[in-house]
């Protein structure tokens, strides 16, 4: 059913990605000012990219202006957001010298497989993690939307078994999460570990945390001018889902932007998973993550 997914350096990915990743590992030179948004697919990448971009560029583009780039670009297509995974299809990486600093990158690559240049530098990595129940449902529904018509629909039970065995793009999810989780404990100034559920609950608090982590704390003046509230509105699920670009455009390998915005809720898994599936995934989580202090809110 999935002949095109391979175990590479301990994680699952597609052949086209292997060349890109290898090239980056060999040639990418990190700069101290680089910012990476790192995620497991379907855990809030689009949202986190939009928030990071809005924080980093708030001086350049007045956040509530009608011309703000987030109103006409999907976050994955924003310049200078560069998708680490899809560049470097050949043996060299593209010329990044013209990208203005700080450079923003997005990646799904597990921490251990980032280039040494990134791991050894002082650049910042913002990671978002989402509870595996919702991430699974989001990824299963997404996979069926983007699959070529020639492939049969992936049924829930089959996809669930694969997910519990770690067989999902850039998975197993537990290794991915633990890689960044452990690094965030060791180097909290370089890796910020966020949770989708926490962000949904109190985004203002987490935006301030992100801005401080990125060495761009909100000033009292910005706070009183409502800059944080404006970023929250600009990047909200409703706002982003309603934009024309996100209803008509495409990203990556010609996937429709609209597939990136489904429900944006915590707990939708309860509409899909049977009690035995919940029990099984809970056991997997306990077995794989129980030894760490990483936990999730699931509703
Ligand atoms: P659901 O499928 O559960 O709705 P990614 O961006 O990593 O592909 O993740 C996609 C998930 O994030 C989808 O979850 C999507 O609806 C949700 N999402 C997209 N934009 C969002 C936003 N602005 N706020 C909250 N969630 C968002």
Automatic annotation (TrEMBL):
Family: Belongs to the sulfotransferase 1 family.
GO cellular component: cytoplasm
Key word Hydrolase present: yes
Keyword Heme: no
Gene Ontology terms, MF aspect: hydrolase activity; sulfotransferase activity
Gene3D superfamilies membership: P-loop containing nucleotide triphosphate hydrolases
Lineage: Eukaryota, Viridiplantae, Streptophyta, Embryophyta, Tracheophyta
Organism, scientific name: Medicago truncatula (Barrel medic)
Coiled coil: none
Protein encoded by which gene: 11433819
Protein name: Sulfotransferase
């Amino acid at each position: 059913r999935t002949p095109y997914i391979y175990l590479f350096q301990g994680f699952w990915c597609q052949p086209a990605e292997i060349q890109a990743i290898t090239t980056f590992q060999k040639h990418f030179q990190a700069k101290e000012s680089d910012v990476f948004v790192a995620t497991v697919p379907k855990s809030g990448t689009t949202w986190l990219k939009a928030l990071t971009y809005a924080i980093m560029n708030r001086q350049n583009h007045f956040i509530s202006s009608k011309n703000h780039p987030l109103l006409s670009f999907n976050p994955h297509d924003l310049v200078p957001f560069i998708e680490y995974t899809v560049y470097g299809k050949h043996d060299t990486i593209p010329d990044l010298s013209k990208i203005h600093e700080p450079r923003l990158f997005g990646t799904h690559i597990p921490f251990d497989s980032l280039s040494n240049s990134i791991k050894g530098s002082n650049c910042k990595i913002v990671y978002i993690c989402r509870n595996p129940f919702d991430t699974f449902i989001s990824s299963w529904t997404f996979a069926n939307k983007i699959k070529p018509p020639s492939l049969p629909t992936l049924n829930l039970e089959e996809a669930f078994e694969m997910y519990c065995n770690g067989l999902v793009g850039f998975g197993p999810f537990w290794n991915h999460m633990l890689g960044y989780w452990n690094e965030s404990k060791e180097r909290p100034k370089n890796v910020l570990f966020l949770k989708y559920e926490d962000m949904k609950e109190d985004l203002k608090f987490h935006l301030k945390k992100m801005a401080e982590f990125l060495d761009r704390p909100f000033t009292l003046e910005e706070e009183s001018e409502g800059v944080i509230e404006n970023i929250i509105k600009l990047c909200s699920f409703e706002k982003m889902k309603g934009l024309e670009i996100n209803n008509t455009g495409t990203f990556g390998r010609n996937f429709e932007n609209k597939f990136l915005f489904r429900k944006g809720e915590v707990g939708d898994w309860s509409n899909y998973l049977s009690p035995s599936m919940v029990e099984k995934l809970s056991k997997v989580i306990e077995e794989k993550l129980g030894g760490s202090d990483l936990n999730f809110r699931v509703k």
